[in-house]
Design brief:
Blueprint lengths: L17 H9 L12 H33 L5 H24 L3 E2 L5 E3 L10 H18 L12 H19 L11 H15 L1
Protein name: Transmembrane protein 208
Family: Belongs to the TMEM208 family.
Main location: endoplasmic reticulum
Length: 199
């Protein structure tokens, strides 16, 4: 293809194409706020996100089951209990994300409501995705040592921190409402009026 330079090898996907480099160099960066996403774009990105996490879940569970069957005892109580726990966690997270991202269409198959943007920074979906990443990481690392299951304790720990930071701490340590400062002149006028009213 045409570009700034020619290469006779296949370019890895992580390298930027020469056309992309040219576009970045010749086009100035956009000023101001980033444009908002359209409903259709949110729906497509949500579908891609859900697909990615489904594949991650299938991969983590598949690798765990295969390696445990070959090298360990899959049917021990501990391994079954942990497989059930991780599977329930995955199911709950995926179901919750699917529910949040449920889009509404009209009869012409046009998007009326895109649902919640799963890729929004600071949203609850971010915490759900973190839970799935933690679960799959713990599950795969547990193939090296069962002590890696202890990483799962980070989830309730983070939940408690989130609860403390966003709900409990502001409630317990909220500042007392400030008394409005009364202007001295107004205060003296008010006192004079009160004295006149008493006489």
């Amino acid at each position: 293809g045409s570009g700034l330079w020619q290469c006779n090898f296949i370019q890895p996907s992580f390298l930027v194409s020469s056309e992309e480099i040219y576009r970045r160099v010749t086009m100035p960066p956009k000023k101001g706020k980033e444009g908002t996403k359209g409903q259709k774009q949110i729906v497509e990105e949500n579908q891609d996100t859900l697909k990615f996490y489904r594949m991650m879940v299938l991969g983590a569970n598949g690798i765990f089951i295969a390696v445990t069957l070959i090298f360990f005892d899959l049917f021990s109580f501990f391994n079954i209990a942990m497989l059930v726990m991780t599977s329930l966690t995955y199911f709950a997270c995926l179901y919750f994300m699917s529910y949040m991202a449920k889009a509404t269409f009209n009869e012409k198959n046009q998007v009326i409501d895109s649902g919640v943007d799963l890729n929004m920074e600071g949203g609850i979906a971010e915490h759900v995705k973190d839970m799935m990443i933690l679960t799959s990481g713990s599950q795969l690392l547990s193939l090296l040592s069962n002590y890696f299951w202890l990483l799962m304790l980070l989830a309730p720990g983070r939940g408690m921190w989130f609860l403390w930071k966003n709900i409990l701490s502001p409630y317990f340590f909220q500042a007392a409402p400030e008394q409005p400062e009364v202007d001295e002149k107004k205060q003296k006028k008010l006192e004079r009026k009160m004295r006149r009213a008493q006489h």
